[in-house]
Amino acid sequence: MLAGYPILSLVIWLPIISGVLVLATGSDRNAPLARILALVGALVSFAVTWPLWRWFDTQTANMQFSEFSSWIPSFNINYHLGVDGISMPLILLNSFMTVLVVLAGWRVIQNKVSQYMAAFLIMSGLINGVFAALDAMLFYVFFEAMLIPLFLVIGIWGGPRRVYAAIKFFLYTLMGSLLMLVAFIYLYFQANGSFEILAFQALPLTMSVQIMLFMAFFMAFAVKVPMWPVHTWLPDAHVEAPTGGSVILAAITLKIGAYGFLRFNLPITPDASHYLTGFIVTLSLIAVVYIGLVALVQGDMKKLIAYSSISHMGFVTLGIFMFNSIGMEGALVQMISHGFVSAAMFLGVGVMYDRLHSRQISDYGGLAKNMPVFASLLMLFSMANSGLPGTSGFVGEFMVIMGAMQVNFWYAFLAASTLIWGAAYTLWMYKRVIFGAVTRKEVAQMQDVVPREFVILGVLALLVLAMGVYPRPLTEVIHSSVSNLLAHVAQSKLP
Amino acid sequence: MQNLYLLVPLAPLVGALVAGLFGWAIGRTLSHLVTISGVAVSCWASWLIFRDVQAGHVYNGALYTWMTVGDVHLQVGFLIDSLTAMMMLVVTFVSLMVHIYTIGYMRDDPGYQRFFSYISLFTFSMLMLVMSNNFLQLFFGWEAVGLVSYLLIGFWYTRPTAIYANLKAFMVNRVGDFGFVLGIALVLAHFGTLDYAAVFAQAPALANQTISLWSGNSISLMTAITILLFIGAMGKSAQVPLHVWLPDSMEGPTPISALIHAATMVTAGIFMVARMSPLFEMSQHTLSFVLVIGAITALFMGFLGIIQNDIKRVIAYSTLSQLGYMTVALGASAYPVAVFHLMTHAFFKALLFLAAGSVIIGMHHEQDIRHMGGLRKYMPITWLTFLVGSLALIGTPFFSGFYSKDSIIDAVHISMEQGMPGAAFAYYSVVAGVFVTAFYSFRLYFLVFHGKERFLTGGHGAHADARHHTAHKDALHAVPHHDEAQSQEEHEHDAHVPHESPWVVTIPLILLAIPSMLIGYFTIQPMLFGSYFNGAISINSSLHPAMAILGEEFHGASSMAIHSLTSLPLLLALSGVGLSWFFYMKRPDIPAMLQKRFHFIYRVLENKYGFDEFNDKVFSGGARALGRQLWQIGDVRLIDGFFVNGTANLVAWIATQIRRWQSGYIYHYAFAMIFGAFALVTWFVRG
Fold first, then answer.
1. Are A403 and A322 in contact (CB under 8 A)?
2. A398 touches B at CB < 8 Å
3. At B457, is the pLDDT very low, low, confident or very high (cuts 50, 70, 90)?
4. Which of B81, B87, B177, B298 lies 20 to 30 A from B370 at CA?
5. Is B177 on the interface with A (CB under 8 A)?
6. Is B489 touching A (CB cutoff 8 A)?
7. Could you report the per-residue pLDDT of A48-82, keeping only the tens digit for each?
8. Nearest residue on chain A to B626, judged by CA atoms?
9. Is the pLDDT of residue B482 over 80?
10. Which residue of B69, B75, B112 to mutate against A (max A Cβ within 10 Å)?
11. Which residues contact B324 (CB under 8 A, 6 or more apart)?
C-alpha cells in the first residue's frame, strides 16, 4: 500500500532537515522561533513514523518499508533501509522521545538555543538511521555520526565536569566501534564484496572466526549497553549531561547496544553466541546484582538512576542470551519500557534540578507537601522502575525471569533478586526526596509542576500504565521477528 | 453474569480514580459518596454472585489476552468459585464498613479524598487478586495490594516513623515476592501455562518430577514450587521471619489497619495457599514446613502481644498470631478450616481494630493503654463491640472465633495422631497459644475499659512518649480532631474526657459485631463439612485425613460448642482471662514484679526477639556496606582508576616517550630517514 513512499527516508531526513533549519535561526535573539521550529520539526518527524506502526505487517519477519539505492558503487555500498519488528518500535520510541526532549529544554536552555534544539533533532534522525540501516557501512556511518551531537550536548550544555565526561564517553564508545569497522571489512570480503547485513547473516563462518567477530561486535555494543565492566562512562555522562541529554542517552542510545547484539552478534555469529552465552550471562547478572547494590549507595540522583539503568539493561542482555522467545521478547519489551521509565526518572530529576539546582538526595526531603502532583507522578515512575505489575517496568523483567527459569534456576534466582534491589534503591531515594518533613526553606519554596512539565510526565505516565496493562500490541509487533531470529540462531553456521 | 463479575472490581476502581484524580475538584462529600457507592455496588454484586455460585454456577474465563509468547497465552481473567465468592463477600463487606467508618475517623484530615481513593484502589486490587484465574493476575493483585499498603502506611508522610515503616513493609514483602515470582517462573517453565485450571490438571502427571538445583542433588519439583510460593505467602501474611513489617504498619491510619493489615490483605497468603491446594497436597515436605512456620508465628508472636502498651500494636501481634493459626491449618491440610478462620477473623479483627480506632478518637489520639481505663462508661457501644470482638478472638463457645479456632486445634491434633512431621510441635503451640491469646486480649480489654481512669491531664499529648509527641506535631492537621458534636460535649466536661464516637463510627462496629458473634455458628457446617468448597479446594484424603476425620466427629454447631465446655482449650482460655483479670485488675503489682524478676525474658520480648535489629544490621546495613565497597573498590578504583585512567595514563606515557623523538633537530630526522630507507630496501631485496 505504501510501497511507493520513502517513509524511512522521511523518518531519517525530516528531523535532520528540521535541525538544520533550526540551526539557521542563528543566535539566541531568535530563540523563541528556534523553539517553535524545533517543536514543529519534532512533532512532524514523529508523525511520519505513524505509518510504520499503522501498516506494519506483524505476520512477517522480512524487512518492511525497504528502500534501496546505490550510494558508493565502487565499494558496493548502498543506501539500503528497512525495518522489522525489532527495529520499528525503537524508531517510534526515538522519534517520540525527541518531542519530549524539545519540550523539556523549552525554558531551561537559554544559551545557544538553536544549536541545542538542532543537535537533538539531527541526532534523532541519525539514530533512526542506525535502526533502519541494512547496509553495514551505512549503519556504521549513522552509528558514529550520532555520537557527535550527543558529545556536543554533553560538552556544551553539561555540568562542571562536562569535558571529562564527554571525552570519557567518546573514547569508550570509539574504542569499540573501530573493532566493529574491522569486522565489517572482513565480512565484506567474505561476502564477495557486499556490505549487506542480511548477506552477512547468511555467511558460513568457522568457529574461530565467529568468536573473533563476536568479540569485535561485543566491544562495540557492550560499551553502548553498557555492560559491566565497561559501564563507568555512563554515570559520569549522565551526571554531567543536561536533562535532555540524559533522556536520550538512557532511553535511546543504550538501546543501540542491545539492538546491535540482536542485529549482528546473534545472526552473524550464532555458534559463537551460543558458545559465549555463559560469558554474557555472567556479565548480565553481575550488572543486575552488583550494579543494583552500587545504585543503593549513590547520593546523587542522576548517578543512582544511571546505575539503575545499567542494572535494567542487564535484563536486556540476559533475556537476549536465553535463546527462548519469552526471554528475548522480554528483552525487547524491557528496552522499550526502560526507554519510558528511565526518561521519566531523568525528567523528574530535571524538574527538581531546575528548581533547586542540586542533584543530591540529601538536599531534598518533603517534596510531597508542596509538589503533590509531581510526587504522585514520580511515585508511579518509581514503582515502574521497581518493576511493579501494572506498569511497563514489570513486563520485561517478568518475561526475562520466566525465560531465565527455562534455562537455569540460578539465572532466574539472581535475576529475580532485582525485585529487592530495584525496590530498595528506587524507593529509598523516593523516601528521602519526597517524603518526610520539609527541613530546608529552599525546598519549602519549590513549586509544583507547570503545565508543560505535567504534559511531559503525564504522557509518559499513561504510556507506562498502558504498556503494563496491555503489552500485547507491542509483543505482537516484535513476535515474528524474534521467532525468525531464534530459528536462525538455532542453526549452526559452521561450514 | 460476566458483566456482574466485571462490575465487582471495576466499581471500586472507578471510585478510586474519581476521588484520586478529581477529589480536589469535587470536594469531600462527593469523594466519599462516589467511593462508598462503588464499594457498595461491588458488595451487592458479590452477594448476587455468591448466590449464583451456591446455585452451582462456577465460572472460569478470560477477559482479554495480556500477551502471547510462543504458545503461552498470558491472560487476564476470572475464576469464580465458592472460594472466590466467599473472599469477595468478605473483602467487599469489610471494605464497605471501613469506608463508612472513615468518614468519621478521617473527618478533619487534609488528605481525606486521597485516603478514600487509596482504600478504594485497595479494594480493587484485592478483588483482582482473589478473582484471578491465573498466576500472572494473582501476582498483579499481590503487588498492587502491597503498593496500596505502602501508600497507606506512609499516609502521614511527614512522620519519620511512618515512612520508615512503609519502606520496611514494602521491602520485606519484596523478599517474599522474590520467592513468589521464582515459584511462578518454575510453574511456567514446567507446566507451560500460568492458568490455574491447566496447571492443576497437569499437576498429577508432574508429581514425581524432580529438578536439580545443584549438581548431584535433586528435589521434588512440587516441593520447590510450593516452598517458593509459600515464601511469597510468608511475606504477605507476615509469617516468621518475614513478619517484621506488620507491627510497624500500625503507623498507618486505623481504618486501614483494620481493612488491610488485619482483615484482607494479610490473609492473601492464606487464600493463595488454599487456592493452590492441589499443588501443596503433593509435597509433604512443604506442608510440614508450613505447619512449623505457622506454629512458630502463632505462639511466639502471641507472647509479644503481652508486653505491648500501644493499643494497636497489641492487636497487631494478635493478628500475627492468628495468621499463624491459619497457616497451621494449611499445613495440616485443613484448607477449608484455614479459610473459615480467615473469614471469622476478618470480621472480629476488623471489629477490634475499628473499635480501637474509636477508642483512639475518644481518647483524643492517645494510644497508650497505660493511660486509659474505665472507658466503658464513656463509650458504651465501643465497649460492648470490643468485648464481642475479644470474646470471638479468644474462642468463646458459640462465638465465630470459637468454631474456626477449635477446628484448627482439632485438625492439628489429628495430624499429630497421623504422625505428620512437625504436627506435634504445632499442636502444642496452638494449644498454648489459646492461653496466650486470652491473656493478652483481656489484658488489653481490662486496661482499656475497666479499672481506674489513668488519663493524662494537662496539655494534650504532653506526657505521651516522644514518638507520639513528634507524630502529633508533624501531622498537626493530619489526624482527626474533635468534631462539632463532641465540642458541645466537651463544654460540659473537661476537654480531655473521653467520649463516644459519632454514628458513622459506631454503626460499622455494630454491623461487624453481628457476624463476629454469629457467622461461625451458621456457616461451620456447610463450609467445613458440607460441599461448599468442593471443586475449589482439593485434599488428598488418604494421605491427609484431617478434614475427613473432623467431619466424622462433627455433630452440629451447638453440640460442638457444648462439647467444648469441658475441653482443654476452653479451660486455657478461661484461665488466661482469669489471670489477666487478677494481674491487671486485682494485683497490678504482680506484673511489675515479674517484669523485674524476669528482666531477661522481658528484654527479649521487648526487643521482639531481635529480628529488627538483626535485619537492620545484617541485611540493610550489609547491603549498603557491600554496595559501597563494590562502588568504591570495583568501579572507582579498579575499573576507572586502574583500567580506564590507567589506559589513558599509558597512552599519555607512550605519547611522552614518542614526543622525545620529535626533537626538531634535523639530523635526528635525517638519521631516522636513512635508517628507515635502509630497512625498507633490505626488506624488499630479501622479498
1. yes
2. yes
3. low
4. B298
5. yes
6. no
7. 999 999 888 888 888 888 888 888 888 888 899 99
8. A293
9. no
10. B69
11. B239, B240, B294, B295, B296, B297, B298, B299, B301, B302, B433
8 Å CB contact between B404 and B346: no
Q: Do B640 and A232 touch (CB under 8 A)?
A: yes
B464: pLDDT strictly greater than 70: no
In whole angstroms, what is the distance from residue B320 CA to residue B353 CA? 14
Closest among B167, B260, B157 to B478, alpha carbons compared: B157
Instruction: Name the residue in chain A with its Cα closest to that of B620.
Output: A424
Interface contact flag, B189 A405, Cβ < 8 Å: yes
Are the beta carbons of A389 and B140 separated by less than 8 Å?
yes
Q: Tell me whether the omega of the peptide bond preceding residue B397 falls within 30 degrees of 0, making it cis.
A: no
Residue B168 in grid coordinates: 520496611
Length of chain A: 495
Whether the bond into A226 is cis, omega within 30 of 0: yes
What is the Cα–Cα distance from A321 to A415, expressed in whole angstroms? 13
Residue B40 CA to residue B53 CA, distance in Å, equals 20
pLDDT at B470: 40
Q: CB A475 to CB B140 under 8 A?
A: no
Instruction: With beta carbons less than 8 A apart as the criterion, state whether B301 and B243 touch.
Output: yes
> Is A322's pLDDT higher than 90?
yes
Q: Is B213 on the interface with A (CB under 8 A)?
A: yes
Specify the higher pLDDT residue, A173 or B309: B309
Q: What was the ipTM of the complex prediction?
A: 0.91
φ, ψ for residue B333 (rounded to 5)?
Answer: 65, 20
Closest in A229, A389, A436 to B144, CB measured:
A389
Number of Cβ within 10 Å of residue B551's Cβ equals 15
- In degrees rounded to 5, what are phi and psi of residue A466? -60, -45
Q: Tell if the CB–CB gap between A325 and B140 is shorter than 8 Å.
A: no
Subunit contact B68:A472, Cβ cutoff 8 A: yes
> Residue A232 and residue B189: Cβ atoms within 8 Å?
no
Which A residues in the span 466-495 are in contact with B, Cβ-Cβ below 8 Å? 470-472, 475-476, 479
Closest CA relative to residue B185, chosen from B193, B174, B197: B193
Band of residue B392 on the pLDDT scale cut at 50, 70, 90: very high
Percent of chain B with pLDDT over 70: 94
Which three three-digit cell numbers place residue B176? 517474599
Which are the contacts of A2, defined by CB distance < 8 A and separation ≥ 6? A51, A55, A65
Average pLDDT estimate for B581-598: 87
Q: Classify B63 as helix, strand or coil.
A: strand
Amino acid, single-letter form, for residue A308: S
- In A, residues 171-210, which contact B (CB 8 Å cutoff)? 171-172
Share of chain A above pLDDT 70, in %: 99
List chain A residues with CB under 8 Å of B231. Answer: none
CA triplet B238, B240, B244: central angle to 5 degrees? 60
Q: Helices marked H in B206-283 — which ranges?
A: 221-236, 245-248, 254-258, 268-275, 277-280
**Grid coordinates belonging to A413:** 534466582
Q: What type of residue is A475?
A: T
Percent above pLDDT 90 for chain B: 53
The torsion angles phi and psi of B478, rounded to 5 degrees, stand at -90, 10
C-alpha B375/C-alpha B377 separation (Å) is: 5
Q: What rounded mean pLDDT belongs to chain B?
A: 87
* Contact residues on chain B for A171, CB-CB shorter than 8 A: 648
Test A297 with B66 for CB contact under 8 angstroms: no
Is pLDDT at A130 greater than 90 in this prediction? yes
Contact, B103 vs B357, CB < 8 A?
no
| In contact, B168 and B608? CB cutoff 8 Å | no
pLDDT value for B486 = 43
Q: What angle do CA A223, A226, A227 make, to 5 degrees?
A: 95
Q: What is the mean pLDDT of residues B610-623?
A: 86
